[in-house]
Amino acid sequence: MPAPHLAETAAPRVLCLTMNPSVDLATETPRVLPTHKLRCSDAVHDAGGGGINVARVITRLGGTCDSVCPAGGPSGHWLEVRMAQDGLRYTTIPIAEETRVSFCVHEGETGEEFRFVMPGPRLAASEWQACLDHLTHMAVFPDYLVASGSLPPGVPDDFYARLAKLCRERGSKLVMDGSGPALAAALAEGVFLWKPNLKELTEFTGLALRTPVEWQAAAARCVARGQAEVVALTLGHLGALLVTREGIWSAPALAIEVASAVGAGDSFVGGMVWGLQSGLSLPDAFAWGVASGSAALMSVSTGLSRREDAQQLFPRVRLTQDPNPAAA
């Protein structure tokens, strides 16, 4: 199927929220060794954090979206500069502490990656409330609101649950990619789409989930209980799974040479949301998620998927369907 044409005037509005953005640095060194001075290659700098990464992928694919995030200090200013350079439409909420800086080191001799993720600045109650107030008072609310990434220190665990309630009140569809207590609270409120990996689904359910049948049953229960209308489960080298009330669709992993796993999950969400914005069915949008997530695996550093790679991989995505998973 060819890439859909995105009509600017008719496209659903998308907003990506990143409560814990970061300046992402990536570099390479021959070998990571303790106590040694490690001579590194030139660093790659990117605006990062879950929602920002999703927005970058949507924009690369030709979609349109807005971004909202808190930002502070010199690194927060640099984050704004980089988002502008990437062509993102953004609003930043000022905070007192400095935006975090995270980094990834690629070990040249082994191909291994070392990812160092900082906790982020502590937000005062007035600061995280300002983020929520900004969304609450939007004159034109987005059709899809993507909440992706961790919550920084100081933000309450029910923040995403409040967001889920706001989306329901405003007739918006919340796309959730997170983990831990904040995720559990959001799912208790109910979201449109949840994108876990197998580790996150296992932690949420408290079950071992060792087989495909167990994965499918766990995801289907989330749908049947109203925690998410749609579950898009990513399984790494085992492929991906889409679960709705109408059916289960599975996609085997694509045969590609993996250079880096950084950004694959965010690229999957970006590709799938772009597909939904383009008017595609859930299974077809899911296939674009698979293609985009797989494309990210082909790029080293802070990467994310490139449009040309996703377009090349999309025709290779093969979906199989089983009906009515949540009816049992």
Determine the mean pLDDT: 91
Low-confidence blocks of residues: 5-9
- Write down the overall geometry: globular
**What percentage of residues falls in helices of 4 or more residues?**
25-40%
Strand content: 15-25%
Integer count of domains: 1
For this structure, what is the CATH class? Alpha Beta
First and last CA, distance: 33 Å
Element-level helix/strand string:
EEEHEHEEEHEHEHEHHEEEHHHE
User: Which strand order do you get reading across the main beta sheet?
Assistant: 5-4-1-8-9-10-11-12-13-14
Which secondary-structure class do the elements indicate? alpha/beta
The oligomeric state is single chain
Task: Provide the gyration radius in Å.
Answer: 19 Å
